[in-house]
């Protein structure tokens, strides 16, 4: 290293140390923390950090400077209590800067919770429920990690705290512009509905949303508070979101060219390697259940800034080149298996068609022009279309006979409005002069009343104004709707009466104008709803084949050597295939759709690492590209390809077979642009035959092959689901029939953990995937039992058990147990099991195959499985199966010992999504399960050696409840949601479900068993209410939040409190007795007394008891530790405090008898008790200071109960000024928020005060309760305070 470079490093070192010293001087607390961290650095490098830098070796010098810069960054701004740690299943504990937390807690950012990361792919991959919200948090976290690595390794880059914040903000906000279903909105929908001269991208919308968020939430002040320069940094953030620039003259305004590398962190235009990709590759694989062959941490740790062609770029170590390939290959794998999945793709196409049809009445595409409206546009639009709610601004829509200019239509509409006003004005005059009215005037009272009414009408019913309307002419570019449409909208919200007049005027206009086709009465919103219902019921076109395209042949036809972007190529190739490919199937061509797709390793360059630069260990500052000999030869010849897919919606199955045959023939006939390669075996075997005979033989072979496959497919064994928990799971065909119904598909929109996703970002999984997982495990457990003891169980038993497991959750309402346990807690006899079974019967009633397969005893059996049966009861009461099959009732809902497949699935699934370690292996229990005799009845038992695993299961349950289900903020949020639902109950009638009675179920069963003739009329209140109930999902949150109805104002405000995190604060929690849990007022009374006493101790503290409320919860290892069942059922009911005492085992040498394991066989490290009670005190936060006072009051209250020695110290005489509650020795008062003690109150124990710090000077023994000033405890005068405090011990 040169002398000048040494001097530069020395300058940076000395400047950084000075900055840190100035920081230390500002705050005693900072000084203490910084000193500790400097001592760590000193110990690690064995050299003084604050003196001679020149004696330190260069490499070590850089490392020290990097760590010093981190300390400077950590403490350069106040790190308040608002710093937040997010528990992410991908990156673990992520700490985000307070400014980022402010951004997160805004409606504009919270909107991302309702936009799925992979759009509609959750309809194919059940686990793909993650959202843009958690992805954005992950990208912001990785951006911080990458910047930290660069600053540590290269302090000379001068990455400032402002740079850190700006890059993290851009990373956090880069996806805020995404519309419903993510890339479906900006990639498919918007290009179809926007004008040719309009170019809209979600990045631009992200910038617009960022500015809207700043203005609506006052974030500019917060940004300035944390040191941002708005003139420069806002522009910098914009440029980062818009992806900066690739090359050429430096045009960026936010940062100078020497910091060009900063533009490659969030969205890298140069080579596509950025933290956005790192997060979504890992996250998508995790939720999809697809292996990820890429390690982002390896790239992150090797990143380094090097000079490339006079500009600084982020480069990577040469040895990670294979990992870079792995990253791009993972991208291709995701696109191939998931993002461009053949079923997922056609679902995208169909939802896009639904959005286009609904755009007129719902004004979907117009929302992007107004960020306040765009904030309300989320995936909830799916439900919005299904409910057929038109925009309040929509007046009418009509089909044009021919294309008309907008100006001409505007003039005609203006004339129509004037005619309407004139004609209705004449009608009003005629009514006033009619004889009937004159007769009514003879009554003075009536005359007075009528005049008043007419006056009101005159004031509230003004004439229509043409300038108050917008005219829109559009073309729906769809096969079945090749029409030009004219649409009329109000420019602003209007009264209902004005809306009705406008609609009447529009109808008259349509009936009289010759350019409007009044015969076409198509309701496009209704058509959109039909499309979505077909998706829900899985009535989709079938992919009859796909083939690779030869780009050379297509370019030759197009007459161009190079074409513009991929989107243009895709459209052009599709058009060329339709025209030049002569696709003329024997069936109706209208039922076929040709689609062209692009797939590749990356977005930039022909080869993934063409634009990636590397550095070597020996020359870390020299960047170079990898040569061919330096990379593996085992790579593909090309890295991009275009595919053609043909979809067919066949009227009959036979037609699909013929269509597949035609597709292969078509590919063979178009070898110029289809990469058609005949099967080698077929080609060699027929080489001696003529070309015609060869073609005929191949076609016949293909047809026969497909015919065999099709025949097999007509009676399939089931369907395979790719689940991130259980892998490839196969379910029987009958279960698939149930899954493909609106009643079951509704579970896709009900979150498994209710409002927990508002605390744990990853907890977005739903009842849908959980139900599929439970059905799979139920089938596996039943099959294991059958393999071991085949005489005990038959196929019909397994089928019924799986159906019950699948349908157990059907009756859940919005946010799962929030609806069941909070919203429906009082005033209603509604029960989950009854609602679930009724909805299952509703499915059976409309499916002949299910009705034929399931007999009366089977339906009764499924009902009992869902409801649960006490298999340990003395008398056998179940009717679905006899007593010799009692063990079957312990698979789904085990009321005997609480071990069932529901728990096995939700333990594994919830831990996976929450990011909480799972120490329980359900496969071990499943494999060891066996039916044994226990007290004369058959029960499921487990091998004695898995006892510890069962203990792990119950401990996992406790962990999930304590860390997630009963999380202190989760409980508050769920209570707020429940209160909002209750407040909205009057206005939203579907929130009032009728409790399903036994009579309702019997009537439903009778109708099924007697083909609709054996029961009562099905138009009952229950039937009507349940039809409304299946429309009730988690989308009710957005329906209330974005409503404008005054009747929903209270409910809306409660949800706004949740979104903006205006929530009560938990000031403390403590373990309490069972009595205090059952009688909440006991704890509340104790707390109120404590508040009163605290206020006497500290008169300057202002706390109102009305601002507090108490919550008590129960945490346990098992439901069976809560309320023991009747002792007649189990003589050992008292042992239920230990859940494992309810579990029976078998020995290796005795497989038939169930036994309990002895106490000496269990671990001695298990807890003595398995149930505890927790009390929490919540405070409505007024200010940070008041919250701190409340927390100190709580601490004092509980420590007093434990007999802890305590002393209150003040930095002014007579108990004034700042104060601190001390419970342990304090050699220095820095961490107490005060610098000296001038008065104190001894609350408990014996204490000594010291004149100097670290107990080095004479002490004063405190024997009295209160000391008003230093003289009171024996100081020479009142100017000599105490500087340290120590507790006197024996």
TrEMBL record:
Belongs to the SAMHD1 family. Belongs to the beta/gamma-crystallin family. Residues 132-281 form the HD domain. Residues 421-462, 677-722 are annotated as: Disordered. It holds the Pfam family HD. SUPFAM superfamilies: gamma-Crystallin-like, HD-domain/PDEase-like. PROSITE patterns: HD (PS51831). One of its GO terms (cellular component) is nucleus. Keywords: Repeat. This is HD domain-containing protein. It comes from the Eukaryota. One of its GO terms (molecular function) is dGTPase activity. InterPro entries: Beta/gamma_crystallin (IPR001064), dGTPase-like (IPR050135), G_crystallin-like (IPR011024), HD/PDEase_dom (IPR003607), HD_domain (IPR006674). One of its GO terms (biological process) is dGTP catabolic process. Residues 683-704 have a biased composition (Low complexity).
